[in-house]
Specification:
The structure is a single chain. The chain is mainly β. 9% of the residues lie in helices and 53% in strands. The protein folds into 2 domains: 60 residues, no CATH class; 74 residues, no CATH class. The chain is flat, with a radius of gyration of 21 Å.
Length: 186
């Protein structure tokens, strides 16, 4: 019996230690972004003077949700989702403890990817991809800790490379022939 208790306790502790705190789900409490009692403060999202846990949502006039932001203890936590008025997926962005982390994807109304950005500790990190509406690549910008670093490329709608340069230690090397009209910082 004592042996069984020890196995249970060890198993329980292992389960707790290995659980992922970023996988928490806020309570099914939905507050519209226009609610006058919901505020973003230095401490986080506050509802009726208390740290908010639930979903901040944006709705269309017909009541359909077009944006949903999960919040736990006042901090954005989980995958925020957005939809076009027509119901197609618009965006998905991951937050962990109030910071942008991992991916941020946005789609064109036709369902093709518009861009895929990567974050680490609330900063751009890695390759940021921007696409034309037909999903051919338009831009690849590389970042490290929020700063452009490495190979930067831009293509035209035909897929031809029109700009190719490298940034190393904030110095630019290569040919810049065009600026993209789609900014990377969203």
């Amino acid at each position: 019996m004592r042996q069984l208790s020890r196995v249970f306790i060890v198993s329980f502790l292992a389960l707790i230690a290995c659980s992922d705190p970023t996988q928490s789900t806020p309570p099914s409490f939905f507050i519209e972004n226009t609610d006058p009692f919901l505020h973003k403060t230095d401490q986080g999202w506050v509802y009726k003077k208390k740290l908010f846990s639930g979903y901040m949502v944006e709705k269309e006039k017909d009541g359909r949700i077009v944006y949903q932001l999960p919040i736990i203890d006042g901090k954005e936590n989980g995958v925020a989702k957005g939809w076009y008025n027509t119901g197609e997926k618009l965006l998905e962005r991951l937050f962990i403890n109030g910071k942008k982390e991992g991916f941020f994807k946005q789609w064109w109304p036709n369902g093709h990817l518009r861009y895929v950005f990567h974050y680490k500790n609330d900063n751009y990190d890695g390759t940021q991809w921007v696409y034309f509406p037909n999903e051919t690549k338009r831009e690849a910008s590389n970042y490290q800790k929020g700063e452009k670093e490495g190979i930067q490329r831009v293509w035209d709608e035909k897929g031809e490379l029109i700009s190719n340069y490298t940034i190393k230690n904030k110095k630019l090397y290569g040919v810049i022939s065009v600026n993209s009209c789609i900014p990377v910082s969203h």
